[in-house]
Specification:
Strand content: 15-25%
CATH architecture of the largest domain: 3-Layer(aba) Sandwich
Distance between the termini: 61 Å
Number of helices: 9
Order of helices and strands: EEEHEHEHEHEEEEEEEHEHEHEHEH
CATH class of the largest domain: Alpha Beta
CATH superfamily of the largest domain: HUPs
Number of domains: 2
Bound molecules: flavin-adenine dinucleotide
Shape: globular
């Protein structure tokens, strides 16, 4: 265990670009590395990823583990986990961080199990105390925070929720060491292969995870048809449409739009909550938004405790007025 050193961040790519959450995790990794006097390393796996090394040279990264091969063009648990497991055994990091995305949630447990170490999922804060990584996550339906440590095994592994940590700021360029990781995988031996990719019909839904503006609707919207009122405001603002779990459970909107503890954590510049009461499980997913606007007919709704601007009234009256006013204003600009 004494040999374990350095903090590794697994970098995820989406549609040939680096996912924003990677820079959020790097920001935190740099903070932790200062405390523990360790290096920050990133791990790049993919088919055409060496071009991204340049991006990391502006973020104070000490070392890049680069594994590039056409076989890694499509994510497969089998290939990615086997490369990472070998790499970890060779270079024995102390801490290994993944994004809590679909890919990270699939990959990290496989690696933790193979290395017989612990993994904390969905962390919202990380710190180092007495040489251990303190991994904070919500428990019991979001009502409590638990600090979890892994004192006996290494590496210490965590997945980190997108949009909860400050992004690493670009710095002066440095020259990270690049370790080219050889790949020794026989494609004929793989148990799985991607034969075809089929886009699902949700492609017309603007994703909420990296949206600048989100207009969200809750149970107060009343029906699937009424979500048109929310859609119209979102359309004028070029915003994504979000929802509370109550609206998702009612079948009014897709689960991919759910904001909150068991949905997506978002951090837009503007979050407009319509007909949403503001329970802890919802707030956990949107309270770091830069400006929160709440529309609710109940003046005592808890959402008003966290919002920057609150409007008490019926959203069916207020939202169309807002949509029209914004349409007019934006057409003049
Ligand atoms: C383990 C667990 C995980 C959960 N995860 C999530 C999660 O990820 N996200 C999430 O959102 N919830 C989550 N929940 C559910 C959460 O506890 C609440 O049930 C849910 O957030 C309530 O949604 P809501 O605010 O839309 O509904 P309600 O609490 O019913 O609030 C509806 C609001 O609409 C207002 N309203 C009604 N009519 C109008 C009108 N015409 N105009 C204006 N306002 C109106 C009412 O005043 C009320 O405040 C979770 C719960 C559990 C137990």
């Amino acid at each position: 265990m004494a040999d374990n050193k350095d903090i590794w961040v697994f970098i995820e790519f989406k549609k040939n670009s680096i996912r924003g959450v990677s820079f959020e995790i790097i920001g935190k990794a740099k903070e932790l590395a200062k405390k523990s006097n360790e290096k920050v390393c990133v791990v790049l796996l993919g088919s055409n990823v060496s071009k991204f090394c340049e991006d990391f040279s502006y973020h104070g990264i000490d070392r890049i583990y680069l594994c590039e091969d056409s076989i890694l063009g499509e994510y497969l648990t089998e290939t990615f986990s086997s490369i990472l497991i070998n790499l970890i055994k060779e270079y024995i990091p102390s801490i290994l961080l993944f994004p809590a995305t679909k890919l990270g949630r699939d990959l990290a447990p496989r690696i933790a199990a193979a290395l017989e170490t612990g993994l904390t999922a969905d962390c919202i804060e990380l710190d180092i105390q007495d040489g251990n990584l303190v991994q904070t996550r919500t428990v019991y339906g979001g009502n409590y925070l638990a600090d979890i440590i892994c004192p006996k095994n290494r590496p210490q592994m965590a997945t980190v929720r997108p949009n909860v940590m400050e992004r690493s700021e670009a710095l002066e360029k440095n020259q990270p060491e690049i370790i080219n990781v050889p790949i020794d995988i026989d494609p004929n031996q793989l148990k799985t292969k991607v034969t075809e990719k089929i886009e699902t019909t949700v492609i017309d839904i603007k994703p909420i995870d990296e949206a600048d503006v989100i207009v969200s609707g809750g149970r107060g919207i009343g029906s699937k048809e009424n979500f048109k009122i929310i859609d119209e405001l979102a359309g004028v603002l070029n915003a994504a449409v979000g929802a509370s779990r109550a609206a998702v459970d009612a079948g009014w909107i897709s689960k991919s739009c759910q904001v909150g503890q068991s949905g997506t954590v978002v951090c837009p510049n503007i979050y407009i909550a319509c007909g949403i009461s503001g329970t802890t499980q919802h707030l956990v997913g949107m309270k770091s938004s830069k400006k929160i606007i709440a529309i609710n007919k109940d003046p005592n709704a808890p959402i008003f405790d966290v919002c920057d601007y609150g409007i008490v009234g019926d959203y069916k009256v207020i939202v169309p007025l807002l949509t029209e006013a914004l349409k007019e204003k934006l057409s003049q600009d």
